[in-house]
Amino acid sequence: METSAAEVTRSAVPESVRALRLTHRAREARLAGEHSPVAPRAEISASWDRALRSGVDPDQSTESVLLEMDEIEHRRRTSTLSEVMPLLDECLVSLADAAQQIVVVTDVEGRVLWRRGNTGVLRRADGICLAEGAAWAEADTGTNAIGTALVSRTPVQVHSSEHFVRSLHNWTCAAAPVRDPRDSRLIGIVDISGPASTFHPTSLALVGSVAKLAESEIRNRHLQAIDRLRAVAAPLLCRLGGRALAVDAHGWLAAVTGMPPVDRLPLPKSLRPGRVWLPSLGMCQVEPLHGGWLVRVTDGPADGPQRRVVLDLSRPRGLTVNVVGAVDTWTQRLSPRHAELLYTLALHREGRTASELAEDVFGDATRTVTVRAEISRIRRHLAEVLAHRPYRFGEEVEVEVIHPEHPADLLPRSTAPAVAEARRTFSASA
Q1: What integer pLDDT is reported at residue 256 of this predicted model?
Q2: Are strands 274-278 and 102-106 parallel, antiparallel or unpaired?
Q3: Residue 397 and residue 307 in contact, taking contact as beta carbons nearer than 8 Å
Q4: How far apart are the C-alpha atoms of 222 and 135, rounded to whole Å?
Q5: I need a surface site. Which of 137, 200, 309, 352 has the fewest CB within 10 A?
Q6: Torsion angle of alpha carbons 397, 418, 322, 429, nearest 10°?
Q7: Least confident of 3-12, 261-270, 329-338
Q8: Peptide bond between residue 390 and the one before it cis (omega within 30 degrees of 0)
Q9: Which residues contact 252 (CB under 8 A, 6 or more apart)?
């Protein structure tokens, strides 16, 4: 059986080259608005579509206006990734250098903050503006590992003609997102890039593993810092009366006394020592600690502005509590159970014990454990207006309840005895 010249030619062409040719044809067909019998990988196809919708020119330059060095330095200082750059240098840069590639680290906007690696490749990277301060989001440069990983939030490898902009077809890159392990917030991208000839399928797994290692390092550093702060703060809190807590510079809790613990205390961007109004706590006295802040809640009606609570029960599917004060106003959505408890406390301004609330809400005075747990959850958000021993709204707090138009619509699914009695009372007076 004879073999045709075309078949000999096809068999002589490496599979990787054949795949690149097919990708190139698919890209050209997409740009021309034509159907291609061969489709690229799903993440590449989706990225091409985004680039087309964004109006990226496939023949454009990848040049961008670089950030000023002062801005780059500011972003470096304020980036959590600065903590793990020594780790990235140790784990990834040497490998990239040996593989004729470079390591690029960007912020969440796709701006390059750091780059390391092979000197020759760094010079070539200047030619495509893969430089510190450059913009590599998809909206700026089309499909590329950095920008596409920012959109997909997953590790991505982009090779040769998979890039949307033609001038990047001589490059290969693999990138992975890095998240802050404390709150899963995206904080940047780690990328390895180089000439297309340096492509290797394991690059994606490598950069993904290094990103996870960076997240682990951030977590360990955070825990160590919290432990150090706790060692300083715990003796202080033991001597303090009232409510107080120690948090790091970002509000993460190290120690607490006199109040339920929270994972994180929201802090203003520019926090200074002295009297500070914090929405979740009220008026506080803030003092610096080594590695964080000591926050003492100032109790008593004279220590903070008058508060007003509006409990809106007018819409069964939109139960809310609105807290109004001289400094701020905010609204919290309520679960039906929390609405029952707050409504009962609004009916009994003198306060209720745990057993009384259990009787009011469950018809069973022994369910005090459940009541205490639910009130504790409520006080995480409403500590500034709710007192305890007994549970009650603070004496200085004005409380208003907005009832539904019809008595039967007052928490209609509630079987709480206190709510049922209120429905009967309103029906009789209607």
Answers
A1: 95
A2: unpaired
A3: yes
A4: 30
A5: 200
A6: -90
A7: 3-12
A8: yes
A9: 182, 222, 226, 263, 264
